[in-house]
Amino acid sequence: MAPKSSSSFTFTKPSSQSASGSSNTVSTTASSSISALLSAYTNQTTPRLKFIDAFLVFLVSSGVLQFVYCVLVTNFPFNAFLAGFSSTVGQFVLTASLRQQVNPENKVEFKEVSHERAFADFVLGSIVLHFFVYNFLG
């Protein structure tokens, strides 16, 4: 019998077989979930929404790149950074709104809004956004 310690907790090292088995199960579950998600996205999403999603990915990567550049290199013309970053964020918001309005699954919420009207709102909002961004640059 082992001597009693003052601690009520006992720690045991897990065997390497059980640890590798559980991590293998987690990675298998994660990879199968990701593959199921990608196959459902490619099979059920319309090409119009895929195009909008690609633009959203571009906007996110552009915003991340601008932020990383500002942090690592310089932010000397700070108003230029603010204008560019706010333009990216604003365009992302407008594009996400467009995606929500043209998604066929949301016809109940946007039954009075046609796809042409949603796109016209998107274009008008983008023009107004970029007008303010241009004026912010000075």
Automatic annotation (TrEMBL):
Transmembrane portions of the chain: 54-74, 118-137
Region annotation (Disordered) ranges: 1-25
GO BP: protein N-linked glycosylation
Any single GO CC term annotated in Swiss-Prot or TrEMBL for this entry: oligosaccharyltransferase complex
Pfam families for the chain: DAD
Oligomer and partners: Component of the oligosaccharyltransferase (OST) complex.
The name this protein goes by in its record: Dolichyl-diphosphooligosaccharide--protein glycosyltransferase subunit OST2
Organism for this UniProt entry: Lentinula edodes
